[in-house]
Amino acid sequence: MSFFVGIFSSIEFWKFALPLLGAIVAWFTNEWRKRIVDQYQRKESSYKELLHSLQGFYIGANNAEDLKSEFLNQLNIAWLYCPDDVIKKGYAFLDTVHTQKISSDTEKEFALGAFVAAIRTDLLSRELIRTTALSATDFKHLGVNKH
Question: Which pLDDT tens digit goes with each residue over 104-136?
């Protein structure tokens, strides 16, 4: 026991141990930051695609069916790393533009605004998503109606 007390009280031990501990902490911090940056870049790229594909829901849009299909694909990809709020608001927007349901333009605009606001909130937070309350029953396999 006195051997360990002697080692831990020695200046030579601390000359080695403190830089080692500092390097370990720096490495873990760097890896954590890299993970945040990687996730942010994935989200930003996916969100750009989601926002671009929203054009498919405007009347008279070129390639509307392709853009709608891309929106659905990107919303499915969002399940991998986006917060529950973004996914739920994406589905809420889709409910307002569904061909079997009639929603007012005001309802559609509000749902779209809430969806875009959720995206913005997520991007500005730069938080890692670690938990979800979504379950398998929340996932919706949707397709674009071809005319």
Answer: 889 999 999 999 999 999 999 988 788 899 999
How far apart, in Å, do the first and last CA atoms of the chain sit?
82
Q: Strand, helix or coil at 101?
A: coil
Count each helix (H run) and each strand (E run) in the chain, helices first: 5, 0
- Output the pLDDT for position 47: 93
Secondary structure of the chain in the HEC alphabet? CHHHHHHHCCHHHHHHHHHHHHHHHHHHHHHHHHHHHHHHHHHHHHHHHHHHHHHHHCCCCCCHHHHHHHHHHHHHHHCCCCCHHHHHHHHHHHHHHCCCCCCCHHHHHHHHHHHHHHHHHHHHHCCCCCCCCCCHHHCCCCCCCCC
Name the DSSP class of 82.
S
Highest mean pLDDT among 59-68, 75-84, 134-143: 75-84
User: pLDDT confidence of 96, banded at 50, 70, 90?
Assistant: very high
Instruction: Give which of 143, 81, 70, 83 is closest to 115, Cα–Cα.
Output: 83
